[in-house]
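ok so for the tutorial part 2 we go from a plain amino acid sequence to predicted structure tokens. step 1 is just haveing the sequence, like this:
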Amino acid sequence: MCENMLPENSGKQPMKPRTDEEKQAVLNRLKRIEGQVRGIQKMVEEDRYCVDILVQISAINNALNKVGFSLLERHTHHCVAGAIKKGEGEEAIDELMKVIQQFSK
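step 2 — the prediction. this is what the tokens look like for a chain of 105 residues:
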């Protein structure tokens, strides 16, 4: 199964390792988000209008959710589906539900 999306590391490995292209796409999105966070830090330092900062925070939240849903989709299609095929579906589905609950908070 894929690694756990909760703060602690489950120690598990993906059933199907990410391709270099998949890794690069996620890393590019995260780097873009990192740049947005730095931009917000600068806005705070410059004492910018609160609403402008809040709009940028909302954009970052949306971008993180998009990355998260992308990883969640891949996990479901590869890790959970693979576990079901191997007869380990109950554990994989339980883990998936916990991750979805954590992700949707």
